[in-house]
Amino acid sequence: MIRVIATRETIALFRTPLAWSLLAMAQFVLAYQFLAQIETYLHFADKLRAIPEAPGVTEVVVTPTIGVSALLMLFFIPVITMASLSGERRNGTLALLYSSPVTSFQIVAGKFIGIGALLAILWVIIALMPLTLMWGATLDVGLYLSGLLALFVLMSAYTAVGLMFSAIFAQPSVAAIMTFGLLSGLWLIDWATRLGQDAGLFSYLSSLNHFQRIAQGLLDTSDLAYFIIIIALALYVTTWRLDGDRKPL
Amino acid sequence: MLDAPLLLAHNLTRYYHGRRVLHGIDLELHRGEVLGFLGPNGAGKSTTMNILSGVLAPHEGSVSICGHDLSQQPLQAKRHIGYLPETPPLHLDATVDEYLLFCARLRGITSAAASAAVGDSKRECDLIAVGSRLIGNLSKGFRQRVGIAQALLHAPAVVILDEPTSGLDPNQIRSVRSTIKALTQRHAVILSTHVLSEAQALCSRVAILHHGHIAFNQRVDQAQHAMRIQLDGLSSDPDWSLIAGITSGESLGEGHYLLQVVDFDVAANSLTRQAVAQNWTLRELRRDTSPLEQVFVNLTCNDGADFA
User: Which chain A residues are Cβ-neighbours of B79 within 8 angstroms?
Assistant: First the structure.
């Protein structure tokens, strides 16, 4: 049943120009960024060779590209998720799901996976670009894979948060703004710590910190747990909100 | 008597923002029955239908469909419900076939059986010719029929249709009505409508909802038995209940009477015999064609309420 809802969601996303234009724009921006990083690397290549323990091509080209991808997701994912439940609510098609023999969780999981399938395409595109470096350089496979893992959990968490706001608000644009607000807030929240203040909680809440640690290859379960908690919490609230539509408060 | 009811609703109560919109609704629906749901706007028709189909949960009361409680065993109960909400829940970006296939799978029909179910449902709703068209490009009448088709895919025991003919032109209304008429052979149907003649034409029973109460719930043929007559030569109003087939009578002035009858033919026979015997002049005798309207107006118009 989850698969039926997920398939429908992915197809519906590709029926609009939205998915295509986002994929195209993301590819364009990231390709430009990727080439610019290669350019930078080539410029400093000689100097870098002189330094022992110098950063390699993966650190100079791949990791920054994945960092920029993460930043792009901050803008793209709220737009992709904004209408997934609020649109159904507006069109009255939620009634179809509600009167069918499916649970709220199945609806939420279906939507999450359906949007995830579209984002997976974007993720694969991002993953393919660094492989082109293998023609002329040696890729640090560990760093490359941990970067992709960081991007994967980040995108999943963003999707879950977007879905949550799409369930809470009936207007897609409000859902997008709230998603963007919360996600950028979490991204930037540890700026307080950069002013030298002791901000343990802020620092823990910062998605940027956790993302960077995973992307740099410092695999720590607490960083992964941060994203998994966000996903679980957001999907739980989404399910609870859909249940709340039907159940009297 | 009849077998166990397919749908049994007991004491349905629902509040909106602290205001009580449904006051203990009780309903029963048996196989082969078509229940017409009438009422002014805001009477609670759509709320009731949403509750019966599991889209909303009541604050109090319970619904059971084919013996499954809708709140305790929602998945089992919903397998037996087909629902067309007031706004048909259509995917305008999909073709009719794609949409119906999705709905069939959503109702738990296996992918192997789904295309056969879609075919049957399209045939039942006369949609064969538009299977590959985008729903967004279809006329309102076709969209409404696609909406009905999605409610029938899984051959549910209970079909709930919220204003299936609203906003359609006369030809479309006729075709949707004939679709609904055909349904009654295989499903129990609840439909809401504003059109009283539609309820009379399609339904075996009519429930009138007013301010969240069921103000009237009777078989249509019982409600339909009324007779209008005009008599001259009466000295005083006779005791109508003494005449065979007539239950009561009401004087409308100048010799006009509205009579409630058990059986129209029996009543007409005994009345003409009585008129001859008593030397009354029978000037007019006809079936009252709009008793439902009369009932509706009497029940719902006295306070002119039209709640939003």
Answer: 101
